[in-house]
Amino acid sequence: MATSPENGTHRWDVDPILSVEHLFMRFGGLIAVNDLSFKVGRGDITALIGPNGAGKTTVFNCITGFYKPSEGRLVLAHGRAPTPDEVAEVTRVGERALAGPQSGVYLLERMPDYAVSGQAKVARTFQNIRLFTGMTVLENLMVAQHNALMAASGFSIKGLLGLPGWASAQRAATEKATYWLEKVNLIDRADDPAGDLPYGAQRRLEIARAMCSDPILLCLDEPAAGLNPRESLELNTLLRAIRAEHGTSILLIEHDMSVVMEISDHVVVLDYGTKISDGTPEAVKNDPRVIAAYLGVDEDAVEEVEAAINADTHATGTSS
Ligand SMILES: Nc1ncnc2c1ncn2[C@@H]1O[C@H](COP(=O)(O)OP(=O)(O)OP(=O)(O)O)[C@@H](O)[C@H]1O
């Protein structure tokens, strides 16, 4: 489903769930992310793309609290987006959430990774799969719900004693795990060690594990990497279902253009840590700067690429 522009604007402009504002990440003398600003629309599937080393994973690591950005602001809004004045006030008083966590507005750059996932409800998967390979498929999903189970135990021995509050929380956690195993088509493998699953199934299990934490924003780092064409199609279906049935906003890094162009509402393109394009898949696909970046040509050649696209467009009679 493409984003439907509303009165000439896009969902990411009118109802952003995440605003990345002037983000910088420096590693010594290397500027991995350079003054990056973009928005993620609520309920959108947003793709962050770019050539190798463009800074995509670094952006994810900043959003999910694995890195403290060198500069910049990352505003996540569960409900309405805050006004600039409200954000300025939170920044001034040194808080990490607007008038307390119940407001649903979080400044992610101030939060450690466990709070980004536990309080702000941002979940992620990794470029290199990070499952507990010696645990069963089901156990991997139960571990993902550890926080809820600990809260239900009152951080006491209720769990050991099997007291009612804890038992019902345990039942709910198992039901949720079962639901997601069915969704990702792994229910038949529930008792197998996660490490025994084929690669594509491990990728699906990672997504199921992330969904067990009930995220409002799901960040996926190259979910289609290593998948065959049939598995890529299944991934597209799964991500669309997550968005449609759970309203989860999705931000993904992806090199597989068949996935990006097929399912994204919004595409943001990075090159050398800088944003070079931002728009609908159709607009980005035809952006000469994007084509030049992927072809590895320098700035001077962008005009040549643009001229070549125009010539091709006229020859085939298509319009961009
Ligand atoms: N912890 C780090 N220390 C030093 N340099 C880093 C660190 N993490 C990333 N970089 C550098 O930052 C730049 C961006 O890396 P990043 O992994 O974010 O790119 P990417 O777009 O995700 O690349 P790929 O598509 O290959 O995964 C690279 O030059 C990388 O070497």
UniProtKB/TrEMBL annotation:
UniProt GO cellular component terms: plasma membrane
Keyword Nucleotide-binding: yes
Domain ABC transporter: start-end pairs: 18-297
Stored SMART domains: AAA
Keywords: Amino-acid transport, ATP-binding, Nucleotide-binding, Transport
Signal peptide: none
Gene3D superfamilies with a match to the protein in the record: P-loop containing nucleotide triphosphate hydrolases
Alphabetized InterPro entries for the sequence: AAA+_ATPase (IPR003593), ABC_AA/LPS_Transport (IPR051120), ABC_transporter-like_ATP-bd (IPR003439), BCA_ABC_TP_C (IPR032823), P-loop_NTPase (IPR027417)
Pfam family, one: ABC_tran
GO molecular function per UniProt: ATP binding; ATP hydrolysis activity; L-isoleucine transmembrane transporter activity; L-phenylalanine transmembrane transporter activity; L-valine transmembrane transporter activity
Biological process, per Gene Ontology: D-alanine transmembrane transport; L-alanine transport; L-isoleucine import across plasma membrane; L-valine import across plasma membrane
Similarity comment: family membership: Belongs to the ABC transporter superfamily.
Protein's UniProt name: Arginine transport ATP-binding protein ArtM
Gene that this polypeptide is encoded by: artM_3
